[in-house]
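Appendix B: complex inputs.
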Amino acid sequence: MSIGGSDLDKAIQQLRACRPIPEAQVREVCYKARELLIEEGNVVGVDAPVTICGDIHGQFHDLMELFRVGGDVPDTNYLFMGDFVDRGFYSLESFLLLLCLKVRYPDRITLIRGNHESRQITTVYGFYDECLRKYGSANVWRYCCEVFDYLALGALVTGAATALEPTDSPYAANTTTASVADIDQDIEVETLNADGEVLGRFARASSESNSQSQQNSSALPPAPDNVGAAGTGASGSSNGSRRNDTGAVLCVHGGLSPLIDTIDKIRLLDRKQEVPHEGAMCDLLWSDPDEIDGWGLSPRGAGFLFGADIVKVFNHRNDLSLIARAHQLVMEGFKEMFDSTIVTVWSAPNYCYRCGNVAAILELGEDGSNAGYARSNGDGSAAGFIGAGALGTSGFGGNAYSQAFGSNTLGANGNRRLSGVLGEQHRLREGPGRRYRVFEAAPQDSRGMPAKKPVAEYFL
Amino acid sequence: MSAPNIPNLKTLLGTRRGGSGRGRGRGRGLPESPQASSEAVRDEAVRGTDQDAAGSRVSCVQLGYLHDPYASCFATQQSTRRLPLLNRGTYVRTSAIDSLVRKFIETSPEQPKQIVSLGAGTDTRYFRLRDYYPDAKLIYHEIDFPTNTASKLNSINRHAPLHAKLIPNAPPTNPLSLPPGATSYYSPTYNLHALDLRNLTCATFSSSATNLPNLDPNVPTILLSEMCLCYLEPTTASLIIGTLLSTYFSPATPVALIMYEPILPNDPFGRTMISNLASRNIRLPTLTTYLTLEHQRLRLDSEGFVDGCRAADVNFIWKKWVPEEEKERVAALEMLDELEELELLLKHYCVTWGWRNGSGEGTQESAANKVFKRAWEDMVEQDDRQT
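Resulting structure:
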């Protein structure tokens, strides 16, 4: 009675239609998933290209929108950074679909654990009640929780290109040429809407013409023209080639822990348990970056706050160019901080059917070193990167980009100060090229599948 | 590279519809048809908001946020545990207004005081105040739709702890001797007026003024609107306050207005709130007129509360009004993960409080006239003027 190929495909079909699968099948899928996950290390290795996604929170219709915008599995290689369940009305269908896809295409989808993948949290925030409501017993919830215990704690993406292959997509209606760099430059960041239209395109800081786009970008604080090289800490050369000297990208749901100074220390944890209330494993799933120096107490009551200095030292020590994390609602879908050394990716649009935010996914391209050209993430067509809905704030540009998303105190000057602390040889790695696709919530009642009318609660 | 195998689900529009907020008791049985825009339906939706608030209160009490032995007497629905952030918000809202009210009562405690709660619904504040201040010379009035007052009277009648509070220092009558179908109740301390507030807009000094028995025109009074005036058109809300001030109070009487209302309609959260509530037939007309705290202050001033116009959003109140040890106690009640959402939500509600001293031209301002100034001296407001 093992769940084989065709049964599994049928289950996936059923879940895609947002219909729960029978309890016996859930048990089988969960068993298979655990067999797979137990083989994964605490930090899963993932090769670029990959599309990195943040919190889903049971917003099934928006997960389908995410797949529509980012490409389907297995065409696109996905990495989900946890918080699949709770809050939304379809935690069960969302998580089981992702899990079935994991079992069906284990090398094309990576799932890591969020703080909501926990027995304690799911009993407060909805997943437990949902399972009870949909199956009449807590069995399915129990099977899922057992899977939670086996989810990896992080992922390490390697082989990401430093420069994006620019899309030949059209510009979105409200995109000004000032926010779009020439495509013959090294493209560090590109933002697209749900229709795949370019909202902004930004060349790497060391390129000449950036200062111009920066000055024309109204949403940005004015920055001196010559901060580029310091901002990236790169060699300052701009040879225009598609370089591949980027460091790895660590993906984790929450953030760093004062108990963890190397990625190897994450590998040593015993993760196969309920998320503890404290300790390194808890911190990885609960912590948040903040505009502070060093470590701070988290107002969440679990995990810590950590500042730019912590991130930069950690990234340097571990040869990382970027930390990608989720965990915090950001109204624009993504938020880079600390000179683009860490980014928050949030993939639940109009969170809880109430917050009015847009969502984003982050695509990292493959470096061209093997084949001499960069391959797009999906089916290889020129429109390999398709995209999403209107971006709330599309006004950023050029080499001031990182400052727009970072702290004011830790702009170029802060970075210079830090490189003094680290010593000249302790330069930060050049970050990977980053393509953000921004999308809005799917219309809840137009999905042709069971749709509970959202009843967001307010104070009345 | 879109995913062609994922159907464009908009083509399947309309295959399954409906299912109004089942099981949660909100928007029950409201038609979702074109006539949903009709006034009667909207009135019904507004009346329905009271049970929503009652449920939130019970959730808070059961989890230990609030001490309120009376909340469960009024909630007609099975209690639904609310999300931690809603419990936190209900807690802050209730305790903020409690603080303002209690400081008022504690200022010159020998002086008689009056509270008029507009759209009071199932609010339990009168009963809780009676417990805190058994000897206070307090005249309490609640005004609401007849259906709401009738069911409130019914609940009071059924629960001894409630009707025992109506006539303090007197042997409790059990149950209250009320005619069947009673919608109003009058006593020297507690009065329940069955009245559509909009009837006040056409009242004048003449005999046509709607009768509000036992309302004392000379006693310092708080008018309280906790999510009430916000359901009315701004002009209607102004007329109601104007009529109350001019018709029911002597010009020399100190009168204050405390409001709890949503703000910030124009950001993504605010826009989503308006559209979500619209789908439940709930409109918030004042929200789109009084956009910010500063608008709310100006509103208080123009309504005649010229001697003090203060406002703070609920996020500010949580941070600045709630003492540290109380914050720790409340934060420990439930694990609250959704901090960003909480902040977003709380910033979209505010408490405003304004007052007039009530000394007319040429009259000497007495100590009694300064009751609100003295009561609320230490209540810090939010300084958002430079932003």
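Chain A has a mean pLDDT of 80.
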